[in-house]
Every structure is written in structure tokens, then in C-alpha cells.
């Protein structure tokens, strides 16, 4: 389906320029990355606005930029509703999580969850959840990189050969991401995300204004043209999710997972530690909400623009992720396509770098330093372990990305959100707000949420029983009708946290630790706000 | 809202008799100033969370199950009720974020800072 368009040399050139510039910046900022605080949290030295831009860069993955523009282009209104879940979710992060997390923890989600619980089991559980969510997300990004590349660079996959062009580019993406994370740590990764976010928003703004200009700045006319050009009722609800009651519930399930999952994504949570105070964390989210919101308004125009301007039949469900690049080529020719192509690469790179440092930090800080070394690692070893973990994550991401390339792995992003909303968010909220919550409760909600999500996905139509499933239509053990487990797994995880707490209720509440956590979460007393001075 | 306010470990009664010498954190936790800060903060964030979650859920349910409503055209334009409600989700998200930041800056930060100093003097 993907016929090559534009000039591969130009696309590659613009991408190379991005890589060179970001590598130079990573090199310049990387000198002070040898303490844990520097490596994981950039010495908490970013300002709220800087971090807000970086959060947008971390969050607006290929799935949300290319995926949502494509979903609107092909499914119209349903794609727009989908994008709103991604935005509204930030209020959960702003109101309930960001500041309290910043005040209580230092580097990882495990810091907060284990604060007043038994350290080792909770840290291990937090790390398992962090590593799994990051892995699902990472795999989706890496596999997505392969498909995108065939369009933009004219690199084709030769079936049956492991050393083809697409695999090579996935490997290059993986190697670059490891270089950023190894040398740049959180400081370098943050700058990559800031640059990428700026490029992405400017690129999307250019296409938006261009498309609006072509329709005489008349959005209503553009919408009408989209319907006329595609011959599909793109303004009406239900194109994607309206087929049956099952698909409708599936969409509800997805929306709930999005709105509650964002504030439980470990790579997002970790970004709150890169600012010095809770007040700056609050400003970060405020900035992120504006940037992400404006960006999704652009994608609304880009999506309907692609439907209105691309020749009928260009876009199908199979290649809908190409909507934005194809539209760029249609209106702006080779140069605009080259710019958008480079931005898409930058997007993938920045997101995978953020995921890699999160996985590395969680393994080194939660598992190595606190579970294996009981909180007393030898000086300097923790960061060494983090760097080695980043290498391993890189290798796993490259191999996994190559194997998953060409497979339908879009469900992995939704699964990551569902796990974050089921295993992470209930546990975070209970630890912060419910005094009686204890170690058993936390273990039940984390492992319970995780297990329910994964089991439901295995028995869902994603894996078997339909034409688009991993095992195809002939194998059918899809006992669970929905593709998104959230509507079942999220309430169950909240209940499991309560049940577990009562099961383990002989464990006494640590009054002193709870007081410390509560006072610290709201005032910042005793938190690592002075980390900048070290 | 009152139900949510009671469940989190707000009551100081259970903790009064456990420690002979309360830590600096416990002293502040038991102070009326902290209780007041916690009440104002939680009252705001829990109410706002309930509002935005309910409003989002209503919107998704309408888009999912009430196609007759969301597909209605506005006048003779191609805009629909659903598109309008969706854009209002953007507006309300921006508004709630702005209102919360203002509220926290004006009504929470100074008190939180004073309590922080009180704890850190004793640490």
C-alpha cells in the first residue's frame, strides 16, 4: 500500500540535521550527569514552562500525532472524540497527582508507592508495572517507526529476510535513543523532547493554517468538503465505534482508560521530578495542557483537511497513520513532506528516549538500589546500573521492534494506558489519600490490575478470533468481547486495593510515616527541593 | 463530596495515643492550620475532579449512544452539536486548569510554605 513519495534524500537530510543538533545539545548538557539526581531528574533544574514543553514532547507520540490525524481523516468525528480523552486526562494529573508526587518522591513512581509501605515488595511491584507499561509503549513506537519509514524514506521490507531496510532504520532509531539516554541522561532527554515539541507544534501549525487558507479560512466549508470528497459521513458519530453495542462499550472503555491512565504513565510521572518544587510541577502541567490542547485543535483541522484534500481512496484503515505526511506532500510538496517526515522521526526518537530512561531508572533505583542492595548501593553504582539497563532496553526495543514490525500493534498503546489506569493510578491515589491503605492493598491493586488487563487482552479479539487479530480468524479463544479492558479492570483494581487492605489489616498503620507523607505531599517539607545546589 | 472528605486519613483521633513524642510532621499534621489547608485543598481538587470526570463521561456517552443529538447540524453550517460539545471540552479543560492554578497560587501556596518552614525548623 505504501508507495513512496517525496524525496528520500531530502527527508533523510532534514532528519540528519535534527539528529546532529540534538546530539550536540546532549553532548553540551551531559557533563553533569553522574549523580543519581542529575541522571534521573536533571538535578530538578528545569523550570515549569520548560518541563511543560518537554511533557508535551514526551506525550505527543507518533500514536497521537499521526494516529489521531489519521483517525479523524478516516473516521471523522469518532477520531475527534478520541483526541479529547488524551487532553482531558491532564486534569487528573494536574489536580490529583503532579504536585503531591513531586513533593513525596525523588526519581520514580516506586518512591511514592513505597513511602509508607514495606519497601522491597512494593518497589518490586512498582518496577514490574513500570517496566511492562514502558515496554508496551516502546514496542508500539518502534514498530510504528518501521511502517512510517517505508513511506518517507522509500525503504522497503523484503519479506523473509531479517536484514532489510526497515529493520535497519529501526535499529538506527534504537541506537540513537540509547546514545541520548546513556550520555544525556534526563537532562539530554528533556532537551530532545523540548526541541521535538517545538518542531511538532510549529509543523502542525503550518499545515493547519495552510489547509484553512485553502478553504478560505472557512472551517465549515472544509468539513463539508471532507464529506463530499470521501463520500463518507465524517461529521456524524459512529463511523468507527458505532457498529454495535460491543464497539460502543469498547469506546467507552478506551475513553476511561485514557482519562485515568495518563496520570499513571511512569514516563509522564517521572517528568515531574525534573522541576525543583510542586509549584513548578503545577506550572508544568498548566503549560502542557495548553500546548497539548492547541495541538489537538490543529489535528482536528489536519485530519479533516486530509479527508477533504487527498484524492478519494488514498486513505484506508490500513494506512491511516500516513494521513498527515500525505497531506503535507499534497499541499506543500517535497519540502513540507521532508519537514513533517523529520518531525515524525523526532517524535518517535524523543518518546522512546523518555521511555528508556524511565525503564532504566525504575530498574536501577527500585530493583537494584532498593530491592537488591536494600537501599544502600555502593556510591556511583546506581547510575552505572541505570546506564547498563538503558543499553539492555535499547537491544530489547530494537529486536522487539523488528519482530513486531508489520504486525498490528496499535493495541499496545491502549493496553499501556489501561495498565497505567488499573495498576498504577488506584495505588497512587490510595497511598496519597487513604490512611488505612497498606502493603497488602498496594500489592493487590498493582498485581491485580496488571494481571486482569493482560489476561483480558489475551482473551480479547485483539489476540484471536477476528480477521485483524494476531492469530487471525481461524484461532478463536476470544472469550472477552472488548479490545479495551479498562471498563472492567479499572473498577476491579480499585476494589482489589480495598479488599487487599482489609485482608492485610493486621499490619499496623505507620502513623509517623503517614504523617510525614501527608504533610510532605501538601507542603513540600523535607522534599528534595534543594537538589539543585548539590 | 462529604463522603470523599471523610475516608482519607483525616481524623486525628486514631493517631493521638500511639506515639509518646510526635515527630515534627505529626505535630504539624495535628495542627488546625494544616487541617484547614487540607480541607480547602481537597475540597477543591475532589470537587473539580468530579465535575470534569462527569462532564467528560456525559460527552463520551452522548457521542457513543445519542447519535441523534450529536449529529444535529447547527443552523445551515456543517458544524454539529457533537463538535460544539467537543470544543467545549477543550474550553472547560483550559478553564479548569487556569482556575486551579489561580486558586492554588492565591489560597494554598502561602499557607503550605508557612507549614513547610514550621516542619523544617524542627528537622
Entry keywords:
heterodimer, A: 534 residues, Sodium/glucose cotransporter, 72% helix, B: 123 residues, mainly alpha, 6 helices, 73% helix, DUF485 (chain B)
Strand/helix succession of chain B? HHHHHH
Helix coverage percent of residues of chain B?
A: over 70%
**Topology, number of strands of chain B:** 0
Radius of gyration of chain B: 22 Å
CATH class of chain A: Mainly Alpha
* Molecular shape of chain A: globular
* Coarse structural class of chain A: mainly alpha
The CATH architecture of chain A is Up-down Bundle
- Spatial shape of chain B: elongated
Quick one: biggest sheet of chain B? none
- Supply the helix-strand structural class of chain B: mainly alpha
What's the number of helices of chain B? Answer: 6
Beta-strand residue fraction of chain B: under 5%
End-to-end separation of chain A in angstroms reads: 55 Å
User: Largest contact between protein chains?
Assistant: A-B, 59 and 60 residues
- Tell me the domain tally of chain B: 1
**How much helix is in the residues of chain A?**
over 70%
Topology:
The complex is a heterodimer of chains A (534) and B (123).
Chain A: H1 8-29, H2 36-41, H3 48-59, H4 62-75, H5 77-104, H6 109-113, H7 119-152, H8 165-214, H9 219-230, H10 245-261, H11 266-271, H12 278-309, H13 323-372, H14 381-404, H15 411-433, H16 439-458, H17 486-503, H18 511-523
Chain B: H1 2-6, H2 24-29, H3 32-65, H4 67-70, H5 81-107, H6 109-122
Amino acid at each position: 500500500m505504501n508507495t513512496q513519495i517525496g524525496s528520500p534524500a531530502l527527508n533523510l537530510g532534514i532528519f540528519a540535521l535534527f539528529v546532529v543538533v540534538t546530539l550536540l545539545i546532549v553532548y553540551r548538557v551531559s557533563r553533569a550527569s553522574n549523580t543519581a539526581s542529575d541522571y534521573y531528574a536533571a538535578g530538578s533544574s528545569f523550570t515549569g514552562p520548560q518541563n511543560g514543553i518537554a511533557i508535551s514532547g514526551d506525550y505527543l507520540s507518533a500514536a497521537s500525532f499521526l494516529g489521531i490525524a489519521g483517525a479523524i481523516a478516516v473516521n471523522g468525528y469518532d477520531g475527534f472524540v478520541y483526541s479529547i480523552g488524551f487532553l482531558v486526562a491532564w486534569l487528573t494529573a494536574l489536580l490529583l497527582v503532579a504536585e503531591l508526587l513531586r513533593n513525596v518522591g525523588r526519581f520514580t513512581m516506586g518512591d511514592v508507592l513505597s513511602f509508607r509501605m514495606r519497601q522491597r515488595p512494593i518497589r518490586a511491584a512498582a518496577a514490574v508495572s513500570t517496566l511492562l507499561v514502558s515496554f508496551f509503549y516502546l514496542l508500539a513506537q518502534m514498530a510504528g517507526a518501521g511502517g512510517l519509514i517505508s513511506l518517507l524514506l522509500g525503504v522497503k521490507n523484503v519479506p523473509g529476510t531479517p536484514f532489510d531496510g526497515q529493520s535497519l532504520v529501526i535499529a538506527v532509531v534504537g541506537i540513537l535513543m540509547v546514545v541520548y539516554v546513556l550520555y544525556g541522561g534526563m537532562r539530554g532527554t528533556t532537551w530532545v523532547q523540548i526541541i521535538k515539541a517545538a518542531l511538532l507544534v510549529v509543523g502542525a501549525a503550518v499545515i493547519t493554517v495552510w489547509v484553512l487558507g485553502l478553504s478560505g479560512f472557512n472551517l465549515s466549508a472544509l468539513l463539508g468538503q471532507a464529506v463530499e470528497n470521501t463520500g463518507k459521513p465524517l461529521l456524524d458519530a459512529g463511523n468507527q465505534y458505532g457498529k454495535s453495542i460491543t464497539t460502543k462499550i469498547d469506546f467507552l472503555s478506551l475513553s476511561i482508560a485514557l482519562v485515568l491512565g495518563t496520570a499513571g504513565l511512569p514516563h509522564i510521572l517521572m517528568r515531574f521530578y525534573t522541576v525543583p518544587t510542586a509549584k513548578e510541577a503545577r506550572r508544568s502541567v498548566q503549560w502542557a495542557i495548553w500546548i497539548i490542547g492547541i495541538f489537538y485543535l490543529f489535528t482536528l483541522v489536519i485530519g479533516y483537511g486530509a479527508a477533504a484534500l487527498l484524492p478519494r481512496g488514498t486513505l484506508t484503515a490500513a494506512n491511516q497513520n500516513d494521513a498527515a505526511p500525505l497531506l503535507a506532500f499534497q499541499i506543500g510538496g517535497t519540502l513540507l513532506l521532508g519537514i513533517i517526515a523529520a518531525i515524525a522521526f523526532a517524535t518517535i526518537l524523543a518518546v522512546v528516549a523518555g521511555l528508556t530512561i524511565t525503564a532504566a531508572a525504575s530498574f536501577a533505583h527500585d530493583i537494584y538500589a532498593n530491592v537488591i542492595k536494600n537501599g544502600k548501593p555502593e556510591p556511583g553504582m546506581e547510575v552505572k546500573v541505570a546506564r547498563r539497563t538503558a543499553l539492555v532496553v535499547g537491544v530489547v526495543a530494537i529486536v522487539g521492534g523488528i519482530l513486531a514490525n508489520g504486525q498490528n500493534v496499535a493495541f499496545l498503546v491502549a493496553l499501556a494506558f489501561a495498565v497505567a489506569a488499573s495498576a498504577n493510578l488506584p495505588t497512587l491515589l490510595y497511598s496519597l489519600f487513604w490512611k488505612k491503605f497498606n502493603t497488602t492493598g498496594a500489592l493487590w491493586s498493582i498485581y491485580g490490575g496488571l494481571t486482569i488487563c493482560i489476561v483480558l487482552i489475551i482473551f480479547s479479539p485483539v489476540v484471536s478470533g477476528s480477521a485483524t487479530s494476531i492469530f487471525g480468524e481461524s484461532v478463536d479463544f476470544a472469550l472477552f468481547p472488548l479490545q479495551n479492558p479498562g471498563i472492567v479492570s479499572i473498577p476491579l483494581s480499585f476494589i482489589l486495593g480495598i479488599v487487599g487492605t482489609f485482608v492485610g489489616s493486621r499490619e499496623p498503620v505507620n502513623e509517623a510515616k503517614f504523617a510525614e507523607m501527608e504533610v510532605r505531599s501538601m507542603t513540600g517539607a523535607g522534599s528534595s527541593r534543594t537538589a539543585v545546589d548539590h | 463530596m462529604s463522603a470523599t472528605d471523610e475516608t482519607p486519613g483525616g481524623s486525628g483521633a486514631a493517631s493521638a495515643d500511639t506515639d509518646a513524642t510526635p515527630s515534627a510532621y505529626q505535630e504539624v499534621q495535628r495542627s488546625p492550620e494544616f487541617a484547614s489547608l487540607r480541607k480547602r485543598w481537597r475540597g477543591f481538587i475532589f470537587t473539580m475532579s468530579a465535575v470534569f470526570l462527569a462532564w467528560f463521561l456525559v460527552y463520551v456517552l452522548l457521542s457513543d449512544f445519542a447519535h441523534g443529538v450529536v449529529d444535529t447540524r447547527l443552523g445551515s453550517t456543517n458544524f454539529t452539536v457533537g463538535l460544539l460539545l467537543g470544543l467545549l471540552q477543550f474550553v472547560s479543560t483550559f478553564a479548569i486548569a487556569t482556575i486551579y492554578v489561580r486558586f492554588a497560587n492565591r489560597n494554598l501556596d502561602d499557607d503550605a510554605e508557612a507549614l513547610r518552614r514550621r516542619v523544617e525548623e524542627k528537622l
